[in-house]
Every structure is written in C-alpha cells, then in structure tokens.
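PT: before anyone asks, these are the final sequences, not the draft ones from last week. 675 residues across everything. Please model them as a single complex and drop the result in this thread when it's through.
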Amino acid sequence: MTTPTTDLSPAPAERRSWLRDHSELGVCVLLLMLGVLVLTDALTMDVDIAQRGPVGPKTVPVVVGAGLLVVAALLAVDVVRGGRGQAETGEDVDLSEPADWRTVLLLTGVFLGSAVLIEPLGFPVAGALLFWGAAFALGSRRFDRDPLIAAVVSLVAYTVFNNLLGVPLPGGPLMGVL
Amino acid sequence: MNALTSLMDGFGTALTPINLLWAAIGVLLGTAIGVLPGIGPAMAVALLLPVTYGLDPIGAFIMFAGIYYGAMFGGSTTSILLNTPGESAAVVAAMEGNPMAKSGRGAQALAAAAIGHFAGGMIGTVLLVALAPAVAELAVDIGAPDYLAIMVLAFIAVTSVLGSSRIRGLASLLIGLTIGLVGLDQMTGQQRLTFGSLQLADGIDVVIVAVGLFAIGEALWVAAHLRRRPPEPIPVGRPWLGRDDVRRTWKSWARGPFIGFPFGAIPAGGAEIPTFLSYVTEKRLSKHKDEWGKGAIEGVAGPESAASASAAGTLVSMLTLGLPTTAVAAVMLAAFQQYGIQPGPLLFEREPDLVWGLIASLFVGMVLLLALNLPLAPVWAKLLHIPRPYLYAGILFFAAIGAYAVGGEVIDLVTLLIIGLIGFGMRRYGLPVLPAIIAVILGPAAEQQLRRALQISDGSVSGLVNTPFSVTVYAIIVLLLAWPLLKKVVTRRRAEH
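LR: through. Structure below.
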C-alpha cells in the first residue's frame, strides 16, 4: 500500500512542526551560548594585577556562567517535557493571531535609521522621522496628519529636554537656522 | 514624636511651589500613563529616568512617587472602562468594576476606586511614617554580610515567588546578572565581557537597560500582536457616590490598606496578591453576596485601597533597606544610583530632606490625585481612544531620547535596541522581566558586598553569616526555596487523611 515516497514525505514536515512547537529550545541555545561566553571570558582573565581580598574579579562571572549552563539544561528538559513559557498579554495584545514580523522588522529598521541620522540632522528632525516612521510601520496612513504630529511631538520634546530639563540634545542644522 | 517633627520639616520641603509643581506633574502624568493602554508605571518611570540628569533629586523623586500612585489609579480606570487590564494589579478592579460600568454604574465604580486609592494611600503613608524610621534604626548598623543577604533575598524572592515558572525566572535573573557584569570590575579595574571595546568598558548604563527592557521590548511585543480593532471603552460621566454606596464601601476602604501594606513591603509581587486577597475578603464579608460578579461596589473599593497601600509598603522596603520589591521600586532605585545616593538605613540620617520631603509629598500627591481625578475622569476616559500607532511610536520616540541623553552617543541607541529585542524575546517565551532588571541594578552592588564581607573575614565563608540579621534573612530564603516542597508534603498528608 505504502510507497517509499509517501513514507518519507511526512517526516521533514513533522520535524518542522515539532521544532515550531518547541521553538523555546532556541532560548536554551542562547542561554547556553551566553554561559559559554561568560565562562570563557572569566577563565581567560588575567588576574595577576593586585587582587584585593580572597575573592577576585573572576569568581562571580564563573558562578554566573555556570549558572547559565545549568539553567539552559534545566529549561531544555522542561520544554521537551511539555513546559511552555506563557507569552505576555496586555490591553492591545491579540495572541490569537500569529506574530506580525514585518512590523517588528520595519520598526527596528526605522529605529536604527533615525539613530544614524541624529548626528547629521539633529534631534528634532531625526526624532520626527522616528515618530512618523514608527507610526507608519504600525499602520497609520494619514499623510496629512502624521508628519505634523511627529514634528510637533519632536520639537516639544526637544525643547522640554534641552531647554527646561537641561539634557543636552543636538539641535542640528534646523535649530541653527531657527 | 521625632518622626512627626521630621515630617513637618518634610512638608516644608514638599509645599514649596516648585515641589508642588513636580507633585502635580507627577500625578497628572502618572494618571495619564496609567490610563493609556500598554504603558505601566515601571515603563513610565524608566522613560523619565533621563530627567535625573537635569533635575535635583528631591524634585525628581517627588515626581516619580506621584507617577507611581497616579499610574495605579489610572490603571484601574482602564480596567473598569475597558475590561482589559494592562497592569496585573488592576485585574481585580475589572472583575466588579467592569460589570458596574456595563450596567450604567461606571461613575460610581470610578468614584469607589478613586476614594479607595485616596484612603489606601493615606493609611499606607501613615503606616510608612510610623514604621520606616523604626526599621531604619533597627537596621542602622548592618554591614556587608547583611546587605548581601538582603540582595540575595531580593534575587530569590523575585525569581521564585513571582511568575509561574521558577526556571524561567532564574534564566531572567542570570541574563540580568550577565548584563551587570559588563564593564570594569569596581574593585580591581579588571575588564569583564568588554571584548576590548572602550564603550563597553564603562558598562551598560542601567537607564538603557531599564528603557530597553520595559519600553522598547514592550512596544515591539505589542507591535507584533497589535489588536486590529482596539476595544471600545464604556462612556462615563463624572464620578459620584450616593449615600447608600458610601455606607456599603467605607469599611472596605478601611480594610484594604491592612492587607495591601504588608504585601507591598515584602518581595511578593507588589499589588497583585493583596488586591486579590482583599477581593476575597470583601466577598466573604459582604451582605450583598448576590451582586458579586455582576458589579458589587465593595469589590472595587477594597482592592483599590489595598493596591494603593501596597505602594506605600513598597517604599518602606526601598527607603529603609534599599530592597526593591516591585518593578517601579527597582527603577526608582536605579534613579537613586544615578544621583549617587544609596538607599538604606543610613538614608534617613544622611538625606533627611530628601526622605521626609518625599514622604510628605505622598500626602500632598494623594490629595491632588483625589481633587484632580474626580472631575477629570471623563477626560481620562478619552485617552483610551488614542490611535495605537501614535501611542507606540511615542513610546519608541521617548525611549530613544532617554537612551541618547545618557551620553549623547548613537552607539547607546544600538545597545538600547539590542536590549529591547532581548525584552521582546523574554515576553514571547514567558521569561519575567522583573528578575532581570533587579539583577542589573543590584548585581554589581551584591558582588561588591560579597567581596567586602569575605575580605573582612579573610576569606572564611563564615563571614557571610556572622550576624543575627544575615542569619535571619538566610532562614527566610531557605523557607522561600523550600516552600513548594513543603506544600507538596502538606497536600499529600491531607490527601492521605
């Protein structure tokens, strides 16, 4: 009845869905990598320079690194046994639909882009672009209202922080003109 | 008596026009933030941490305290009108408050909540005045081993009491400790986890970590799961209470604080447990049992009063021991560190102006909150209509200002984004954020106290447990750790009988 091809085909699909169900194992891998990183950094440390007291700068990193490895292992056991971390809920969070990765990527890009623009364009302009870009990424398409609100928010925030609270922000060429 | 004179001096500080202004700004901002979906008090205080670069400490802490109380009140408004509580402390407010609003008694529900907050905050702050100096005096000569014990207690408590999974809490704690390790070792100047980078040698600023985990992480998480149609709030008029309602609720207002205050002072998750306990208590004592679940006003009054008092309890632990028991307290502790002030028993001696000014401003803030919130409730309700793209774009925008203000460097924004992505992942996989932030703030201090204690005892481990105070604290820790086991044994015994 069964041919070799039909026998083989469900296997990769099954494996993929198993991995999707157990994607939390990725957290274990990250914790494991972090633990290895902390341990290597601690163990390759050069501590002949004047160590004061019986506990040097190595001890705590070694403990933390080892702890990370142990927790990675324990979490992996928990996940394989069927334990699941509960995704956080909130007023505006709808967990019934799959995650919208496009929006997250867009937001990340907008954020990095405006970060780069702060120095050449100044905070008011870069901040306004950040606000508008983020609102756009989140689905706002009011081209008459969005840029205006972004500009007002950015200018007011700049004035409050820079002039009233004494937190210096770069004004950029725009503030030079005004 | 001594506390009273200090408190009077405190009122002298709190009632200066400029500090009154900060209290009013804090209360208004806090309420607005509490009402806005998606922003909790911890995120609000984190986003405002950059003001510590420009403001004097007294003004800043008066504002932060106003935000804390204001946000708790605002959170309950959202639960009553929307039935989708954002802050865990406001879950209980929705259980009776939302049915009340649906049956046209929203104004009474809001009034019961507002007066409950006022009563709870007042009684809680009186308890704070009475207890805090005594606790500070008891703890005044605690040394390195005792400080270490308190910090270990904070670590263990936030990982094992809160959340559903201990192992995930522990993972979060270790992530935080790792972030805290980055930079130069404070005692030897040894570089740790810097990979030769000058930027990392300064360590990762706690402002960036707090803003990244709370603001960026939350904004990205919501963005990935944004509800297509935001829920519609129930329209409401000006809050008021009839005489019958007052007769039913005044006992609930008075009972709440005595449940809320002690739970705020211990690291047990802030207002979450006491609001629920208060709800259960009120339900048991109520003469109108048939109304429960359909809008019993006591079920709003008691828990809200307990929530507000728990905030006062939280301040006792933070001011006298430097022990943060909630996320807001942790972020406020970070603000203390920004000013180079170490909260703890000596704070009452070294910074009396600050401490008593802050405590007095709590009373002032409570009065402002009541005076503003009763008439302003319809305005607050309008905030629930804010288009979500603007709301979350605004969070990202202010997070960027906060991180940039730390050192005026673009690389800080990249660090902020990376920590935000960690926060996103933690929300996705149910790792609680609180242990991480407490570990970042207390981790480096705990290591220093550990090394100092061992230096004094010349490397002998007994130096960590040579005071009655530290032994007591470790005994509590052992109890906390053994609790699930004990519970299992007890339930098994019961099952056998």
